[in-house]
Amino acid sequence: MKLLIRNGMIVTPDQVCKKDILIIGDKIREVNDNILPREIFHGCKIIDASGKFVIPGIIDAHTHYFMKSSSNQITADDFYSGSISAAFGGVTTFIDYAEQQRGHTIKEAFANRQKEAKGKAVVDYSLHQSVCSLYPNLKKDLEELKTEGVNSLKLFTTYKEDGSMLDKESWLDLLRMSRDLKLLITVHAEDDEMIDQNKTKYKEKGELPPYFHTQLRPPEIEYEAIKKVGNMAKSLDMPIYIVHLSSEKGYKALKEIRKSRGKIFAETAPHYLLLTEDLLKGKDAQKYFMTPPLRKKEDNLALWRAIENNDIEVIASDHCSYTIEQKLSSSNCLNILSGIPGSETLLPLVYSYGVRRGYFDIKRMVNLLSTNPAKIFGLYPEKGSLKVGTDADLVIFDPEKEIIISDSMQHTAAGYTPFDGFKVKGYPIATILRGKVIVNENRFYGEQGGGKFLKGKESVLY
Fold it and tell me: Which one, of 142, 83, 123, 106, lies nearest residue 317 by Cα?
């Protein structure tokens, strides 16, 4: 297959310039000022991208497709429907999680997750590995997992009740093993002891409505967890990565660790930039329920400033979708299913509310959504670049296309979006995966199982 994209404004973290891109097979063959049709092989398809940006495929570095909750509920999106939704948003690679279960090894978790994903995803994918318990052969298993292409682990500092949390006494051992193997530790940072103390305060109240989620998990618990794990990593002279940074206090902890020469990095998500905790007081509040919870407007602004100051490296969706029926099945904040859909709206929201509002330029957007996650999780330059010889993953993005995001236009099996009613100017109109157009003008041309597993190399953070 041969494809020529002409007259587009090519965007990389370093430059924006008008170039043509020639794709042969699944690779970028040439990037040049004016590639003429007569200079290429017969049968080449030509796309005129005049007035459009051409950017590297988006990498959603934090998703939860086909995830089982502690109450044995399964997310609405599996690897097929979730990745279709992602593709409509310009995502060509996602990174999901293999979650260790108590009494089982990480190798079992990884093998099971590979089986669940195989033959389902329509875009390429990689995996993080969560660790909830240590066992005698763990370091050997971690070493073998690294050879299988996993370069990052996830540590939970909360969720003790469902078995996800690693005992605090084991954190240092896991960090040491990870440092020795140069595996990047990523952290869900909320202090579980403080959460338990807050739960005790409301023990006599009975059922707690959705808004109490913000009382049980205030920003102070994020600050405390980041400080604890950040200082521990600093003592070992190793990098650490905080997922879904949600608050001004969390950002404060991040800056304090960095000021003391800690190697700490972070991602945030659109909902922590654009939504506020007031939604948890309104109708169908459960639709806006995730962990950490939504914060105040001041926290939104603090995180935008953090990105503006280059203190956040990645924006990801934390896509974890349940249907409205699943979300509304409980009104008690201790039992509401946590998570929202987000892969499909990631790119247009970041462009419209980040680039258009002047927090950063489109080059920085490409870094936040594509190049940085590719480098951090060992997928660069095959992913996250427009270099000659690399995978032809591209998005054709129309900066003038105006859309009001709605539940009805989403492709997630959740059937809704928490950003219903948000107006965006700038939208992906074509998604190209390894040289094949899989989405064009809101029509899907990909195939189930068309995505492949990507082996991550060592993170650049080491």
Answer: 83
How high is the pLDDT of residue 39? 64
Give residue-wise pLDDT tens across range 167-181. 999 999 999 999 999
Among residues 417, 307, 291, which one has the least CA distance to residue 357? Answer: 307
What is the second-level CATH architecture of the domain 57-376? Alpha-Beta Barrel (3.20)
Inter-residue contact 116 to 85 (CB < 8 Å)? no
Tokens 């940074």: give the residue.
245
* CATH architecture entry for 2-55+391-400+424-444: Roll (2.30)
Q: Are 236 and 176 contacting, i.e. CB atoms less than 8 angstroms apart?
A: yes
Residue 406, token pair as written in the block: 């709605």
SS3 percent helix, strand, coil of the chain, rounded to 5, is 35, 25, 45
* 3-state SS record for 270-316: HHHHHCCHHHHHCCCHHHHCCCCCCCCHHHHHHHHHHHHCCCCCEEC
Q: Is the peptide bond before 56 cis (omega within 30 degrees of 0)?
A: no
State which amino acid sits at residue 357: R
Sites in the chain below the pLDDT cut of 70? 37-39, 41
Query: Domain boundaries in the chain?
Result: 2-55+391-400+424-444, 57-376
Query: What DSSP designation does 383 have?
Result: S
Phi, psi of 180 (to 5 degrees): -60, -35
Determine the pLDDT at residue 55. Answer: 98
